[in-house]
Design brief:
Elements (H helix, E strand, L loop, with lengths): L10 E9 L8 E10 L2 E9 L8 H7 L3 H4 L5 H12 L5 E3 L2 H15 L7 E4 H8 L7 H7 L10 H19 L12 E2 L14 H10 L2 E6 L7 E13 L2 E8 L4 E6 L3 E7 L15
Parallel strand pairs: 1-4, 4-5
Antiparallel strand pairs: 1-2, 2-3, 5-6, 7-8, 7-11, 8-9, 9-10
């Protein structure tokens, strides 16, 4: 094992996430992490998480995590609180394409009403582009190209190990010239929080229902098919790319779903609607 550059922090965490899709609308499925002191891994963390929705088959094909695997997993909030407590306050978090993982964690905190910790975020992808200049800087490609220890990919703890191996190799390649700043300036996790919507005409009704934990009935125009009405309980309002979105608990299916706000023709409060509970999907119908 090469001696680690003294420009590394005394302690940091290398982590990775697996999700149902793209943030901020996706849900956390798995988090895996290594706690590092010097050149030694001193502890690890791994947990699946129940996403309160179904996992698209195309996403399962990537990481292998299906509905049945997470049906009895702890809720996301419990997993995050455990992870942040394990990592330690303000400990630097390192990931490969860490902006993705940061957006996942920050969105989950906002969604669930959790405080966003002030962890600085650092990126091995950024450092690889600066120091290695390979044809591909994808983690799986770099593992093969650099002859790093092989193993499973697209599972959180395994990819955290790959990212740590990559970091050590980059300190070896750069030698005394390696600087921690190659991994970025350490933007805080809160900098990755999603932006709230501002334009949707139904926004005041949805925000009030979210704050009160009450249901609304949406008149919704899907991309295909006829408009329909559905009763939902709003939870999370966010922007992604050019569109604004609502995440809400669908009372018919008892799962959380995402609705594009420009397709919401109307929303009327229904405060007397009975509450519903999220169901845990053990196999796809």
């Amino acid at each position: 094992m090469p001696r680690v550059s003294t420009s590394l922090p005394r302690e940091f965490v290398v982590f990775d996430t697996e999700t149902t899709g793209m943030p901020p609308g996706c849900r956390l499925l798995e988090i895996g992490a290594l706690k590092v002191r010097g050149d030694r891994v001193v502890d690890s963390f791994q947990s699946l998480a129940f996403p309160e929705t179904t996992i698209p088959p195309g996403v399962t094909a990537i990481h292998g995590i299906g509905d049945a695997m997470v049906a009895d997993a702890p809720e996301v909030g419990e997993v995050l609180e455990g992870f942040f407590r394990w990592a330690g306050a303000d400990t630097p978090l390192v990931g490969h394409n860490v902006a993705f993982d940061g957006r996942v964690l920050a969105a989950e905190c906002v969604r669930l009403g959790l405080p966003i910790p002030e962890h600085p975020m650092h990126c091995t992808l950024r450092a690889a582009r600066l120091l290695l200049k390979r044809p591909s800087h994808a983690l799986e490609a770099l593992v093969g190209d650099l002859g790093l220890p092989r193993g499973k990919h697209h599972r959180a703890l395994e990819d955290a190990r790959h990212a740590f191996d990559l970091l050590l190799r980059m300190t070896e390649v750069a030698g005394g010239a390696f600087r921690w700043s190659a991994l970025g300036r350490g933007r805080p996790l809160a900098a990755h929080a999603p932006e709230p919507p501002t334009r949707a005409r139904a926004l005041p009704v949805l925000e009030e229902a979210r704050d009160r934990g009450e249901a609304v009935v949406l008149r919704y125009r899907p991309n295909r098919g006829h408009p329909f009405e559905c009763r939902v309980t709003p939870r999370f309002l966010y922007r992604r790319s050019r569109h604004e979105w609502l995440e809400a608990l669908c009372h018919r299916d008892c799962l959380y779903k995402n609705y594009r706000l420009d397709r919401v023709a109307a929303a009327r409060p229904e405060p007397e609607a009975p509450p519903v509970t999220v169901r845990r999907v053990r196999r796809r119908a």
